[in-house]
Each structure stands twice: as structure tokens, then as C-alpha cells.
Amino acid sequence: MTHCLNCGAERDADICESCGLSTAAAEFSIRRSLLNRTAVFLLGGIAFVAASGRYPALELDPILIFIGLLFFLTLGLGMIVERRILKHQEVEVLKRLYYGLIPVPWLLALVLFGNGAFDSSKPQIEPARVIGKFAMMGPVPSRRLIVSSWREDHHLERVPVDRGDFDRFTSGDVVDVQVHGGLIGIPWVSGVSRQ
Ligand SMILES: [Zn+2]
């Protein structure tokens, strides 16, 4: 007794009683569905990167590490499901887990976007001294100004900045960082200016 790859119903003949597909047709159907959902997942990753660039969270780096791990775990799970289909093994539980993870980057993108876009609070101006800077190019370029922290329990802040601000400031500059509280409490940075 196995589960139909297409509809998940238990089947004991080649033709599924529930959806009427043969084993081969069901396999074709689930592989197409996996591919489509993987595309939706990848687009969600792009949406997340766009949202995190538009309204960069002050604590962007731990968020990016989390989403990066989730991203590769999810794609790895998708590959396991695909291999098990090719070997005609059970995939029902893993498939559901994989499908459940597909919307996660979209949800996180919405959270970051909503947190910034609907935040009408005035920015808090935090004075800081630039200690260094850090840029990573590649598919997801990230630029950070390393500045002294204004928060009690932090020593440094890694402030996400755009290219203009990144080039404009050097070590030793005293700057004002515009920090918003965020609609749902995720502080984000709208800009850095010279004091
Ligand atoms: Zn079926």
C-alpha cells in the first residue's frame, strides 16, 4: 500500500481510485507541481531581498543568516522529495513539509515590508561614530557601516546603507543614524547623514 503521488490517497492498484491517474501520470504531475512551487519559493526569496533592501532592519545580519539557512534547508528538502519520487518511495509527509515551507519567504518579505511601509513614526536620530565599513558583492550585495552603538547592551552596530552612503562616509566620521521603531517592533534604518 502506497500513497498516490498526485492526490495523496492510498492506492493499491496502478490506477488511483481517487483521482484516476496512473502511477506514471501521477509522477509526472507531482514533479511539475514541485517545479512550480519551487519557482514560487525562489520568487519569494527575491521578494524578501527586495523588502530587506527597501526597509533594512537594524538587525539585518541575523535575519539574513536565518533566512539563508531556511532557504538551503528547504531547497535540500525539495531535492530529497524529487529523488524519492524517482526511486518510487513514499513522499507524502516530506512533500507536505516542503509545500508548507514554500510561502515562508513571502511571509517574511511581507513582515519586513509592512514593518517599514506602514510605519509612520518619526525617526529617532542616533549619533554614532563610524569605526569601519564592510561590503559584500554578489547576487545580494550588502553594505554596512560599522558604527559605535547607542544602545546600552550593544558595543557596535552594523548599519545597512545604500551605495551612496557607503561611499560617502569613512572611519572617524560622526554621523546621525535615522532609526524607526517599526510597525511591529522591528527597528529599521531609513538613512545616515553627516552630523
Ligand atoms: Zn490519486
Task: Provide a descriptive summary of the structure in words.
The chain has 195 residues and is an alpha+beta fold. The protein folds into two domains: 116 residues, no CATH class; 71 residues, OB fold (Dihydrolipoamide Acetyltransferase, E2P), CATH 2.40.50. The protein is built from five helices and seven strands; from the N terminus they run ββααααβββαββ. It has a five-stranded antiparallel sheet. The chain is elongated, with a radius of gyration of 23 Å. It starts with a strand and ends with a strand. The structure holds zinc ion (ZN). The site of zinc ion has 9 residues, from loops.
β-strand amount: 15-25%
Helix content: 40-55%
Cofactors, ions, other ligands: zinc ion
Ends distance: 71 Å
Strand count, sense and barrel status of the largest sheet are:
5 strands, antiparallel
Structural class: alpha+beta
Q: Helix count, per DSSP?
A: 5
Q: Give the domain tally.
A: 2
Regions with pLDDT < 50 over 5+ consecutive residues? none
Strand order of the largest sheet: 5-4-3-6-7
Q: What is the succession of H and E elements?
A: EEHHHHEEEHEE
Number of strands: 7
Global morphology: elongated
| Rg, nearest Å | 23 Å
Mean pLDDT: 93
Draw up the topology in text.
Elements: E1 2-3, E2 10-11, H1 23-54, H2 60-86, H3 92-101, H4 104-117, E3 124-136, E4 142-148, E5 156-160, H5 163-168, E6 174-180, E7 188-194
Antiparallel strand pairs: 1-2, 3-4, 3-6, 4-5, 6-7
The structure holds zinc ion (ZN).
